[in-house]
Design a protein that fits this description.
It is built from 4 helices and no strands. By secondary structure, the protein is mainly alpha-helical. The chain has 2 domains: about 35 residues, no CATH class; about 30 residues. α1 packs across α2.
């Protein structure tokens, strides 16, 4: 498990690489501004992803992190 500082730095890096710095900042502002239920948001985010695919993606990510 990552410490809080490392998690924030890596999270921001992933967002910036994926969305670009401006949209990453916008995303964070949107999440902070609105009432936010992470559990409900996550359910909606992945509702159309089959469990087998989700688990395979998670396993692939774990293997990737083990090699870096």
């Amino acid at each position: 498990m990552l410490n809080n500082t490392t998690l924030k730095v890596q999270g921001m890096k992933v967002l910036a690489e994926s969305l670009g710095l401006v949209d990453a900042e916008r995303f964070i502002a949107l999440v902070k501004r609105e009432p936010f239920d992470y559990t409900e948001w996550q359910r909606e985010l992945y509702k159309d992803v089959p469990l087998k695919t989700f688990l395979q993606n998670a396993d692939d990510l774990r293997k990737q992190r083990e090699t870096t």
